[in-house]
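Action item from last meeting closed. Structure (684 res):
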């Protein structure tokens, strides 16, 4: 044991004061404190002071102690390998001694610190760790047991492969132990125990596979646990098992489906969401049709009901604010752009590459964030994300950690209905149409809105069976574009875009709907609500791709509207507008090459071109758009060739020159510039 005491009492006091001040709401003070704390990193003992505050000062405020631990965690993350040996030793020793702290916050912070050290080094470098944590599990002190389990859960999450491949094969001992704890009297312990084992289902860890029967037996006993966290982990386990060991579930499938039906309606949305993932996962399995058929009449109403916005969603979405076009977008609202290559410009923009984003876009509950993140588990299915432009071909389902843009119950239910409609096809319509009729004509606008989402979700799977109803439905939807609720108008844009193939190519209805829809969408492109503008612009891009030259007679009105939108739109929707203009050029080609059209279209684009600096990423969508226009206009683009050519060469040159030894240049500028040069060459 290594004992250490702060050498200077005033040094300790100084750090404590800084930690307390850093909790001030004043950002100026926060910045000053941050700088002071940074500067303390030059003292080798600073990290010892931090761990001392975290683990030893039990009378200090929890928030201050926890903050010391989190700063230490960040230091370890950045330069643990540079910590002197005795500092590392002291941190490890104190963490293990503090596992049973009476404060849940401190226990959690200690767990975070432990897992950070394991990921920065390795389990071999801390040989006593697993042994100590394991021995704490049987402690009569519930705090110690919970603290150890919390740390183990974090290690399982962050270092599952280390645990699996460790020469000492710790999982052979740990997994049976975890399974035994499924039946512990304390809910927090039960929850940790399942969460630990769940990390090893997808990788099919040998130690779990050899204990799978006991695992299932104990898991089934927890199905109706009173604790929502426990139920959430039970659902998650069953969903992963569908993918990994479905043959073990088949004998119990009837009870599992009934359980998931019930749990998909759980009062806790987080539990209902985990249960809802089950329908997405089972839809991919060959047994889906046989096992779900008898339950469709119960399942479909549950999924439809889950697609309604909650009251909280409406508040977050500011769904009652009709006009927000004058409110500038925040920087963080604008999705990072990734250049799209000319070779895959918008083929099947509406439904293939983009269907995930689309469903996601229609179902999302916030327009306040458009950060691209990978799809969450099975969320990579065909539906809309209210906050994202549906124009990105390769982005995941749904936004950043903003609670509203996360994968949620509404999105998951819509995605499940989408994939199930592709499995069962028109077979679901006899059950679904009566529900749909009631939803679409409901007096509560939130239910009506979710009915329109249902109709969009089944567009692909049920298109054949819906055909006789589509004239009436499309007629109804076009009227809904004028609804007084912005969220109804925006979802209607998306749903109509899902039926664009039928609208454009249905011989029997020759153009009965195309022209009215086109003009209504043009009105919505100029809507006073930003979310509606976005949805309308995206839907119009989809329609352009389907209709192609059928748009030609209306080019003047289309261009006038898009140019008007240029003056109206805030930063985020401008990106989608560029896309709609580029897609129009791709769709109508040389029909765009008329002096009056060029006169309309080019001035606002050139104005933007002159405004943007060479290092501004907003150039990407503009250059992509110009690339499509250059190809479409052919010789009509000649007046603009010289400046465009010159700037593209400059962007390429800049990228090459900035690639020194130390810097990695942003190659995207070069890629987009080369794409535009190729568009010029093609057009001329």
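Sequence:
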């Amino acid at each position: 044991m290594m004992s250490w005491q702060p050498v200077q009492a005033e040094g300790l006091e100084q750090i404590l004061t800084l930690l307390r001040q850093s909790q001030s709401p004043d950002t100026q003070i926060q910045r000053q404190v941050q700088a002071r704390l940074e500067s303390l990193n030059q003292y080798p003992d600073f990290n010892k002071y931090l761990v001392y505050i975290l683990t030893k000062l039990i009378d200090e405020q929890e928030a201050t102690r926890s903050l010391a631990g989190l700063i230490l965690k960040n230091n370890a993350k950045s330069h643990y390998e540079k910590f002197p040996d005795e500092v590392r030793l002291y941190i490890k020793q104190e963490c293990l001694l503090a596992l049973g702290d009476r404060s849940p916050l401190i226990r959690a912070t200690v767990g975070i610190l432990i897992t950070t050290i394991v990921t920065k080094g390795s389990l071999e470098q801390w040989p006593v760790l697993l042994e100590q944590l394991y021995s704490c599990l049987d402690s009569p002190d519930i705090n110690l047991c919970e603290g150890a389990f919390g740390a183990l859960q974090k290690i399982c999450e962050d270092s599952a492969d280390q645990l699996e491949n460790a020469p000492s094969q710790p999982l052979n001992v740990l997994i049976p132990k975890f399974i035994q704890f499924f039946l512990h009297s304390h809910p927090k312990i039960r929850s940790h125990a399942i969460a630990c084992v769940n990390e090893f289902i997808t990788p099919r860890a040998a130690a779990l596979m050899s204990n799978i029967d006991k695992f299932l037996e104990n898991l089934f006993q927890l199905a109706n646990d009173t604790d929502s966290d426990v139920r959430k982990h039970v659902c998650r386990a069953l969903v992963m098992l569908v993918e990994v060991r479905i043959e073990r579930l088949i004998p119990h499938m009837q009870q599992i489906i009934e359980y998931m039906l019930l749990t998909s309606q759980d009062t806790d949305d987080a539990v209902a969401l985990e249960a809802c993932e089950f329908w997405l996962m089972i839809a991919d399995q060959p047994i889906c049709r046989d096992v779900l058929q008898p339950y469709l009449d119960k399942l479909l109403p549950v999924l439809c009901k889950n697609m309604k916005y909650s009251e909280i969603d409406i508040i977050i979405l500011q769904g009652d604010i009709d006009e927000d076009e004058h409110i500038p977008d925040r920087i963080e609202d604008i999705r990072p752009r990734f250049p799209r290559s000319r070779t895959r410009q918008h083929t099947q923009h509406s439904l293939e590459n983009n269907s995930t984003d689309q469903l996601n876009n229609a179902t999302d509950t916030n327009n306040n964030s458009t950060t691209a993140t990978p799809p969450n588990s099975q969320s990579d299915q065909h539906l809309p994300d209210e906050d994202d432009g549906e124009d990105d071909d390769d982005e995941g389902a749904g936004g950043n950690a903003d609670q509203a843009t996360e994968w949620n119950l509404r999105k998951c239910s819509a995605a499940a209905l989408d994939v199930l409609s592709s499995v069962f096809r028109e077979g679901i319509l006899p059950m679904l149409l009566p529900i749909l009729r009631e939803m679409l004509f409901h007096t509560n606008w939130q239910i009506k809105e979710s009915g329109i989402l249902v109709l969009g979700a089944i567009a692909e799977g049920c298109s054949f069976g819906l055909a006789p109803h589509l004239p009436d439905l499309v007629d109804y939807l076009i009227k809904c574009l004028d609804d007084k609720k912005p969220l109804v108008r925006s979802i209607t844009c998306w749903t109509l875009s899902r039926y664009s193939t039928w609208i454009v190519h249905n011989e029997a209805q020759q153009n009965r709907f195309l022209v009215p829809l086109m003009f209504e969408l043009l009105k919505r492109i100029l809507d006073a609500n930003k979310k509606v503008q976005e949805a309308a612009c995206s839907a119009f891009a989809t329609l352009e791709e389907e209709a192609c030259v059928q748009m030609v007679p209306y080019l003047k009105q289309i261009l006038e509207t898009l140019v008007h939108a240029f003056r109206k739109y805030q930063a985020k929707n401008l990106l989608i507008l560029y896309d709609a203009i580029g897609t129009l050029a791709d769709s109508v080609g040389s029909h765009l090459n008329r002096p009056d059209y060029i006169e309309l279209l080019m001035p606002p684009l050139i104005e933007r071109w002159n405004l943007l600096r060479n290092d501004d990423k907003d150039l990407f969508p503009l250059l992509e758009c110009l690339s499509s226009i250059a190809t479409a206009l052919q010789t009509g683009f000649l007046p603009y060739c010289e400046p465009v050519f010159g700037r593209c060469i400059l962007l390429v040159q800049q990228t090459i020159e900035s690639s020194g030894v130390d810097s990695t240049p942003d190659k995207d500028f070069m890629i987009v510039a080369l794409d535009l040069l190729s568009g010029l060459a093609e057009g001329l």
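Note appended to the action item: The radius of gyration is 29 Å.
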